Amino acid sequence: MHKAKVWENAQISVVFKQMEMSDIDEVAKLEEKTFSLPWSKTAFIDVLDREEYLFIVALFENKVIGYCGFNNICGEGDITNVAVESDFRGKGIGKAMLESALKWEEEEGIFDFTLEVRVSNKNAICLYEKVGFVSEAVRKNFYERPVEDALIMWKRQANNETIATKK
Known about the structure:
Order of helices and strands: EEHHEEEHEHEE
Strand order of the largest sheet: 1-2-3-4-5-6-8-7
Structural class: alpha+beta
Distance between the termini: 36 Å
Number of strands: 8
Mean pLDDT: 91
């Protein structure tokens, strides 16, 4: 279990911590509001205690306002979900949450991360670029409801903290 971190800016104070069973109802509701094919509450429960998954929640006044999830696949971190409540977007919470989660994953020895994002989701793409991800490929018709291509993004980092670039 990773130690909770407090993040503050001029507007807000947020706590980042590992997701617990008590967070799942709020996480599942935010997932449903955010995605056209959301994970179910049961899916979150199923991964909660699995060693290869790490889910972080962002709490404001003890309410879940964001979360992100990682799956360790053969030593690489696959970002499965990232969401921030609409009223809290644009305040730096998503970036700070991702940075905290990436550091926690690096403490576990994971230095390469990947994700898929809708090609039309410019705000998310910009966020991922801010934390060091680069676009490397497109998966045709990856998403449903509506059908859309996915941009595949990677953040590769050597153990000495220098970013490994695509060759």
